[in-house]
Every structure is written in C-alpha cells, then in structure tokens.
Amino acid sequence: MKIAVPVKFVPDLVEELNIDPSGTALDTAWLRLIINEFDDHAVEQAILLKEKGGGQVTVMTIESEGADDFLFAAAAKGTDQLIKLTGDFSHANNHGLACAYADILKELQPDLILTGVQAHNDLDGSVGPLLAEQLGLPYVGYVAGVSVAGDKVIARKEYSGGLVAEVEIKLPAVLGIQASEKPPRYIAYSKIRQVMGTAKIEEKPVATLNLSGGSAVSRMFQPEVAQRATMLEGGTDAVADKLVAIFKELGTL
Amino acid sequence: MEITLSPLEPSVSKTFLTSLLELENGERIRTCLQCGTCSGVCPFGYIMKFPPGKMIGALRSEFFDQVIKSDSVWMCVSCNACSAFCPSNIPITAALMTRAKEEMLLAGNIPTELQSALENTQRYGNPLGESPRKRADWTTGLQPEVNLLAKTRQPVDVLWYVGDYASYHSRMQSATKALAKILNVLGIKFGILGPEEYSDGDSQRLAGERGLFEMMAQKNGQMFRRYKFNEIITTDPHAFNALKNEYPSLGISYPVRHYTQFLYERIEQIKPLLKTELKARIAYHDPCYLGRVNGIFDEPRNLLKAIPGVELVEMTHQRLNSLCCGGGGGGMWLDGFQWEKAHTRLSEWRVREAVAAGAEILAVGCPYEPPRFEDAIKTIQNAGQLKVREIAELLAQAMDL
Amino acid sequence: MSQDIFVIIEHLRGRVSEISYVMLAAARPLSKSTGGNVTAVLLGQNAQGLANNLAADKVLYMDHPALAEFTSTAYELALVGLIKENSPRAVLFGHSSIGMDVVGGVSVKLGLPIVSSCRSFTPEGKYVSQICGGKIMVEGELPSPTTLVTMVPGGYKAEGGQSAQAPALTTVPAPALDGLRVSLKQYIEPDTSDVDITKEPILVAVGRGIQNKDNIELADELAKALAGAVCASRPVVDQGWMPTTRLVGKSGKQVKPKIYLALGISGAPEHVEGMGESDTIIAINTDPNAPIFNLAKYGAVVDLLELTPVLTEKIKSAKGG
Is A249 a domain residue? Predict the structure, then answer.
C-alpha cells in the first residue's frame, strides 16, 4: 500500500504576528513557520497504517524554513521517501499548492493520500479537497481513525457533538485527517541526527504556480484585544444579573 | 508485583550493560552489593516496579527489557540520593537511570507531558514553549536597564546565565528581578544573553535526551564565545551543574558559580545593606543539584543567617539527605504521571516537613521549587501560612530593593 | 447569472445544524448589498419538512436516496450542477465536517474561488474572515461572478436564520448519483459514560476556592442549568473532589470551549495552558489581583459560594423554568 502525505507549514502562533506595511499580508520578518498540526497527525497516521499492514510512506513538503528538519524527523519515524518541492512559494495559496502537489502525485500514483483536514492560515479552503478534485479522487475529511480493507478504507468521520460516521471509500482516495489514532510519537533528537546522515531528500522543481482560486485581500488586521477583564461591579445579585445578560448575548440562553 | 521472564531478549540486557560500562565510572555497576540502600533512600522507591537496586538485579539476570517495557523509570526525579548513599559509589543516577531513560525515549515509551517539554526545547530553546524573543521580557521596567549583551556588546565581569524558568515563569520573574537589583546595588558589571540564551539542557539530559542536551550546550557555547566575561553565575542549580560538570566534556568550559556562592563571597559588602529586619523562622531547602550533587550547603544558609531577625530552622531531611522537590530529571514535566502513580507529591512531603520544623518561610535556591511548593501548600491542611521565597527575594526584601 | 445568495443547508439525522441558521442570518444582509434573494439549498430524501423554519426567500430541494444522509461525493455532484446552472453571487457553506468536505471539489470543478473561515460580511458586502487562531482578521471583496464562502459561527445569531413561516419550496431534479465511491456504513453514538470535557461548549471550572467536596454540587447545578459540564484545576482533582478526566491544565486536558466560567481559580500558568484559548473566559475570584483577570474577558470579585446558587436560579428563570 503506497501512502503519500503532502504537508504545509503555517505561522507559529507562539510568536507575535504582525501585519506588514502594505496592510494586506503578514510581516515575514519575525514570522516563524511550524508544521501544520493536522499534517503532523497525518504523517503519524500514515506510519501507523504502514506498521499495521506494511507498505511505503512518502512525505512531501514545499521548500520552507524547517522543511528539512521536519522531513528528517518523518524519516526517523519510518517514512520511506522524502520529497521537497522547490520554487517560489511566497504568494502560494492552497489552490496553487494543491496544483503543485497534484503534478507530483500523478507521477507517484499512491493508493491513499493523507493530509491534515485544515490549517489555521487557510483562506481559500483547505488543501485536501482541492487536491482530491484535481486528481479526480474522492475525499472525506475530519477523519480520526483509518483502517484498510483490501481496495477500500473505512474512515471514522467526526461531526460536532461527538457523533462519528463510519464511511467506506474506494481507493485511491484522499482523506483529511483530524487526529491520528495515536498522538504523534516522540523522536529522540539523537535519532534525528542519525537519520540526517543517511536519509535523502528528493528535490523536485515546480514551474509557475497557478494562483487563481483565492480572492484578493483588501485589509488584514488584528482584532482588538482587551488587556484586562471587563470587571462586573456590584454585589452577588447585580453580578448574577450581568452574567445572565452576557450569557444571553453569547447565545447560551 | 509479578515479573515475567522473557528469555528471548537477553540481548537487550547485554547491550545496555555494555553501554553503561562505557560511561564514567560505569564499571562500578559490577560491584553492586544488592544491599538495597538505593531503593530505600529513593523518594519514590516504594512505588517503582523496578527501583534502582532491582534494576541492577534485572540487568544482571538479563531481563532488563522488562524494565524498559514498564514505565517505572519515569518515577525517578534524578535527585541523586541513590548515588550519594551507595556504598559501592556507583553513579546510579548519572549512569543507570539516565541511560535507562534514554532507552525509554528511543523505544517511544514517554509520557505526553514530557514529550511536549522536550519538543518545545528542541523548537523554542526552552521547555515551556515560550517564544525565544521574549526571554528577556522580565527585564522590562528595571532601572538601571539590564545589560543585554547582544545590544551593548560591552565586555563584562559576569555573564549571568538566567535560565528557562527564571526567565519565563510568571512566579519566578519576581525572584529574577530581585537578583538583578541585588547585583546592581553591589556594583556588579554583568550582562545577560536574553534571546540568545538557550535552555541549559540539564533536566532534558537527565530525562534521557542526550542528543537534545548536546544541541542546547553547543548553541549556548556558540553564544558564550561571542562575548567577553570573566565568569558565569546561574540562578538555577541545574544550569550550574550543567555548566560546571557536563559542558566541559563538550569543550565548553568557564568558571561558573551558583548565585548564592557568588553573593556569599561578598557577604561583608552585603551585611551593612541588610537594613530591614525580617523576623521569621526560615527553613532552607537544599536543592539536589546545589547541595547533594555539588556539596554547597553552607553558603546559602549563611546568607540567610546574615539577615537580621532570621532564625534558621532545619527540616528532618537536610543537607546530604535533603528531600527532592520532585522537579528534577524531567519531574517538572512528569507531574501528572507521577501523581497518578503515587497520589502524593515530594513537594507536599517537603512542605509538611517545613511546617513540622516550625518554619514560617521556606527558603529555596532553585526556580523549579517555588511553583511546586506553593501548589503543595494549597492542598495541605495547616500549611496555609507558610510562604515560599527564593533567597534572592529575601535578601532584596531586607535590602529594601 | 444572478445576485442571489445560496445557503447550503446542513442536516444530520433529521436535524438542521446550527451553522445553517447562522448562514441564513448572514445571507439576509448580504443579499441586500448584492440586490438578490436568499435561496436555501436542501438536499435529502423525504426531507422537505426540514425547510419549514428556514429564513429564506425560497428553497431549492433535491430528493434522492443517495442524499438521505451526507456523503461528500453525492453532495458535491448534486451541488455542482445546481450552482453551475444558477450562477449565484455567493454560495455559503458551513465551515464544518459537511461544508468543508464539498466546497473544495466544487471550487476546482467549476473554477470558482473560495473564501474560508468567514465570520461576517460588511454592509458593503465584503467578507471578514478570521485566521491564525483568531489572531488575524482578513477583509476583502467577494470575487464575481460567484464566490464560494465557508462560514464559521460567531458573527450572527442562529435565531436570525429562523422563520415562523415556511418559505416556498421548489423541487429540482437530482443528477445521476450511482456508482459513488464514498458510502456511509453507520453512525456511532458518542460514549456518554463520562463527559469528554474537550467537546463541551460550556465549562464551569472550579478551583481551590470551592473549598470542599460538598460545594462541588453548586457547580454541578450551575453547569446543568447552562447545559455544560464541570471541570477542575489541579488542587481540586488532587483532593479527590473530581476525577482526573475533568482536569484542565498542563498535566490534564486542553479545552477550547465557547464559554469557560472559572470559579475560584487563580490562573496559574499551569492551568492557563489548558484553557487559555477558550472563546470567552469569565472569572470569579475574591482576589482582585488573581492573574486570571488578565486573561478573562469578564470578571467579578465576589464570593463564588454566594454567587453560584443565585446565578443558577436566575439562569433557570431566564430559560423559563
């Protein structure tokens, strides 16, 4: 079973995010990128499937800060093939990314493609479904649990409120991973260092990116953040009344 | 407690033993008398499926793979009590426990909390997952401004290695500021690395991440080489231990002292500045890596005794047999795990001792301790009045800073 | 080509989801700015009844066995034809396990742009989306002729999308929906043996201030009245007053509820690590300097033991008994 995991990197929210002088994009000066958490789960899920039923796992990313480290860590976990797309991705949106990945995947012909269900900086939809359509494959997202049954997979699809649907999909297919069956495993740093010496990252250049599919941003800004709580004055009774009003406003009552 | 023998895996034991013998004084493990002192003095020995003595027994009888399969090793807080009292002088903590934890990590047998701390260290240079850019934010508002070496590039006498918790933890920042004020008043020409400082890596090393420790050490080493200074002082005994005992083997060697040693050296200069009386009974908790491991017991006590009004009381466990607060060896990030197993915390045990000794203040010298002890105080019945203070905070208070 | 706003109605097991009503509420003012109508799109089998309280100018309904319950491929095929034919100004999808499964495929098939994570629209018809965990807001024009939009809750109240009068319903023919590669096998009910606090939208959190086990009952009553669950900080769990499954914090669970009502919790970093990203934090603590007040949206310095029973009663009356 050939499994491919295309991933993307997103702004690390531990750092402060700033808007650049144009007012329409994030300031990249201090921006740090981190692997999209859901993609990390997708890699783990792929490795788990390989451990259970054998096969080959390919992880692919675009050229970016932290990409190499991430690929080596993936190799240390058991990934067989590492691919890095090179080119200018500075203005890439998800439609463009999906196009770039689609070209590589058409060559690779995997049975199953796992990718994170979404990323917090998605503005033009998420990569998974776009990729699926470009490859002419079915897509099911919000998956937390995958099992293989011959030429099909059974996916546990999550809805809000804890409801789960068991969905059967004929391979080849794309799944949007919400959570891997086990949380992403820890890899001792010494293991990663070891792998850096032996694993090879294949670089594949990408021609021009197709940038349609999104929409122009006229303004990017940070919402007002209050420094301290709005204090509700008064005794027990007054505070309780004010809280009821707040709950009403929040749609709870 | 049943132990299943699995004769299929003697190679695990053999390989592990070989690796142990390669460590400093590792061959002493062969001289183990199986006296059980280590297991007895271990603060969590009674909970572990394989306390230290039994681990050595398992190693000899070739079922060490059972040890790796169980999660017993994660109860170890690397307090060094076992090593300190071993009649054969086996470096149990440094060699056996640390090496065993390394094996656990390689096998992927690691509690989630610890995993996050290690991943954060790798990514952000600190186990708390805070942005490296904010590492010197604690200095905001201090006058005179704390010397950030990257900005001023001045040579200084002292490089103050601040440390992770002292820099980022909201409770500890007040102690860190107190120390900054004391250093200023004493006219010490010091500087800090701020965002260029990385975790000392010692707790991560003791938790089994040798590779990560070396990466942190190398990064710190690179930063140290950029600046001119005569000595390093640390807020934290773990950093002190790393810089003094572990970094030299990686080619990073500087004179280093814990801040209590540094201040004690200047006690005659400090005494006249201790104007405000602090009438209190104070119990001093010997941090594992200052006291037991590095033999520094008196300087902190003498600093406290110098404060007018202070009456020093001793707890049952003191000096060499001081009771670990539970934060070392990764314990800081295994709290949930260890609580589930033991339903008691070493910090709670220690707080009870402080109360029993009649202490009003529990004085500490390590940034892991105040949050741990203050949490423990909340859950112990008659401990409510006990206060926890870093030595620097008490000195600053007496100096009206 | 029209200026209408289409809203793709989501339903599961006979119930219309809340986001559908939120989208209808959003569509109304948006349609005014574009000069079109609000059309609800309902797919299902014998599901016409679900349209009865939709606040829309009209409903386009498609009936087919393959649409009885949601599957991505069936919905996508059904919607592609409908959107192509009608060419509305905007199509609103829920940013959910339903909407997000289909919007991508529709976008690529029809070459239509997507704007996702949209929270609201300005009076001029611009989208306002929130990304990066809510830290960044993005505003822009909706590209013409048609933009697909996925909506998140928060900008409009569901009541705004509900109507007492059933809108006019037109049944439209469904395309061929056989040989689909995705099929629903079964639903699995959520396990109700203990509450999973990470999935609760409203949490009443108790800290040291609750003082003893008996008082937890007060929090239980309040949580019940709010249709939420009780969770706790470390000292409470350590004392054995609440099970570990309810622990929120560094060594417990990470939660992101809509509302986190912190009673007698100081806000130490180890606890904040578990709940700092909650949508709205309300803190009650007798210590005005408790760090939690720097994190919470609302706060009050009152005794939680006095406040809780009074608040519970008032909420019960507000809910009508």
Answer: no
Start-to-end CA span in chain C (Å): 50
CATH of the domain at B64: 1.10.1060.10
Query: Which residue of chain C is at minimal alpha-carbon distance from A244?
Result: C315
Predicted pLDDT of residue A244:
94
Distance, in angstroms, between C313 CA and closest chain A CA? 9
Residues of B in contact with C247 (CB under 8 A): 336
CB proximity list for C86: less than 8 A, separation 6 or greater: C2, C4, C6, C39
Nearest CA in chain B to A76: B106
- Rg over CA atoms, chain B: 21
Restricting to B residues 148-207, those with a Cβ less than 8 Å away from any Cβ of C are: 169-171
Most trustworthy range by pLDDT among A165-174, B14-23, B371-380: A165-174
Query: Hey, are the CB atoms on A247 and C226 less than 8 Å from each other?
Result: yes
Q: List pLDDT tens digits, range B170-200.
A: 889 999 999 999 999 999 999 999 999 999 9
- Report ipTM for this prediction: 0.90
User: Domain boundary at B106, B133, B150, which?
Assistant: B106
Q: Residue B90: count other Cβ atoms within 10 Å of its Cβ.
A: 25
Question: Does residue A168 surpass a pLDDT of 90?
Answer: yes
Closest Cα of chain A to C12: distance in Å? 9
- The confidence band for B1, taking pLDDT boundaries of 50, 70 and 90, is very low
Q: Which residues contact B272 (CB under 8 A, 6 or more apart)?
A: none
Q: Which one of B52, B81, B106 terminates a domain?
A: B106
**pLDDT of B3 over the 60 cut:** no
Residue B118 and residue B253 in one domain: yes
Residue A243 lies in a domain: no
Please say if the pLDDT value at position B4 is more than 80.
no
Domain extent at residue B53: 10-106
Among candidates A14, A188, A193 on the partner chain, residue whose Cβ is nearest the Cβ of B106? A188
pLDDT over threshold 90, residue A225: no
Q: Would you say residue B38 lies in a domain?
A: yes
Chains contacting chain C through 3 or more C-beta pairs under 8 A: A, B
Contacts C238 to B, Cβ<8 Å:
339, 379
What is the number of structural domains in chain A? Answer: 1
Cβ contact C104–A133 (<8 Å): yes
Say which residues have a Cβ less than 8 Å from residue C101's Cβ, sequence separation at least 6.
A129, A139, A140, A141, A142, A176, C70, C72, C75, C76
Q: Which residues of C touch B378 (CB under 8 A)?
A: 208, 235
Residues of C in contact with B171 (CB under 8 A): 268-269
DSSP characters over C47-70: -GGGGTTB--SEEEEEE-GGGSS-
Question: Mean pLDDT throughout B286-295?
Answer: 95
Residue ranges, chain C, pLDDT below 50 = none
Sorted by where each begins, the domain ranges of chain C are 5-172, 197-318
For chain A, give the number of residues.
253
For C254, the closest chain B residue by CA position comes to B113
The Cα C36–Cα C39 span in angstroms is 9
The whole-number pLDDT of residue A1 equals 94
Same domain membership, residue B99 and residue B55:
yes
In a domain? residue A214: no
Q: Report CB contact under 8 Å: A188, B208.
A: yes
Euclidean distance between CA atoms C11 and C70, whole angstroms: 8
Q: What is the CATH number of the domain that holds A40?
A: 3.40.50.620
What pLDDT does residue C294 have? 86
Q: What's the mean pLDDT when you consider all of chain A?
A: 93
The domain tally of chain B equals 3
Q: Domain C5-172: state its class.
A: alpha beta
The reported pLDDT for the residue numbered A62 is 94
What share of chain A has pLDDT > 70, as a percent? 99
Residue A42 within a domain: yes
B94-107 pLDDT per residue, tens: 999 999 999 989 88
Q: How many CB pairs under 8 A join A and C?
A: 250
**Selected residues 251-280 of chain B with any CB under 8 Å from a CB in chain C:** none
Q: Which residue has the higher pLDDT, B2 or B88?
A: B88
Compare CB distances from A189 to B124, B133, B209 and report the shortest one's residue. B209
Topology classification of domain C197-318: Rossmann fold (3.40.50)
* Record: contact A188-B133, CB cut-off 8 A: no
Q: Are strands A112-116 and A230-231 parallel, antiparallel or unpaired?
A: unpaired
DSSP B245: I
Is residue B118 included in any domain, yes or no?
yes
